[in-house]
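Below is how a single chain appears once it has passed through the pipeline. First comes the sequence as given, then the structure the pipeline wrote out for it. We keep one example in the README because the format questions we get most often are answered faster by looking than by reading.
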Amino acid sequence: MVSTRQRVKEQIRPLVAAGRRGLRRAALASPALRAAMERAGSELTEAALDAWAEADFYGAGYFGHRRDPSGDRAGRSGYATYDRISSNADIAGRVMWRQFGGAGRTLDVGCARGYVVEVLRELGLEAEGADVSAYAVAHPAPGARGHLRVAALTSRLPWEDGRFDLVSVLEVLEHIPPPEVPGALAELRRVCRGFVCATIPSFGANGDGPPGHFVGKVRPDRVVHYEQLGRDYLGPVPAEDLARDSEGHLVEGHVCIASFAWWTQRFAEAGFERRTDIEQRIYADIAPAGLARYWNLYVLAAPGADEAIAEPRSPQRSLVELGLRHPLYAAAEAAASPTA
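Resulting structure:
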């Protein structure tokens, strides 16, 4: 059945097309009018971006609109600049492509503008993305256009059960209130038939991986208190002790800061098995970029996951040898090169 909205769109489409043709003819005939139209278009774009920035915490402002492009956040949450390089999407996408060589269909939950989706599609994977930010999905990376949807883990994702070989959730789950975490992980489990790759700001011991920490995650005046609680404290940290930015918002919108042990238990309750063997392979890949202590990493296998999905590509070669070009790796290469 055709909806009323669809019928209206069909009825006005010829009028819109005629209007565009008329404006185009007028602009071609008058350079002054053409310049005025460009100025008007620029002002309308700025007004729309300002509206996006004010309407949603994860709107245009979060992704760099009217921010200092030098990289200074001025104590505010979000990004001073946000692009494929600064987000480390090239590294994340290449790591997943390399470490999950049998993955065909992938989903990036919390994809923002879809840079990881873009990387994976360039590498030949059938990648999709979902994010709660309507602004981000409306302004996708070129290579992700048409493959992003507005959706949230706290409600039903718009894909069928077991759709994806690999689901990535990078710096996302800490944005979900603790009582809603079990439901979010159950939704991950529903759409994933293979493996989940997650990074979550965490604290405490991490088995064979780099430990987490409290700095930047709790209020500065409470860091020592939490460090003194020892290994038995699992979290989550109460909301009143979480770090806040200069505008009074929880830093980056983080509402769930907990230990590696707490998160590992939540994943187990959702039916996942944590795979530290695959985590170690990923840590080796990201070590040259100095990211190991920042990416609090979890790799989870769904029940009955096909191990072929997690077979690595070219394990004897580095990411640089496999074609990764990223400033963090370039710096590491330069540091490792003998000086003249």
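The CA atoms of residues 42 and 217 lie 39 Å apart.

See the next section for the split statistics.
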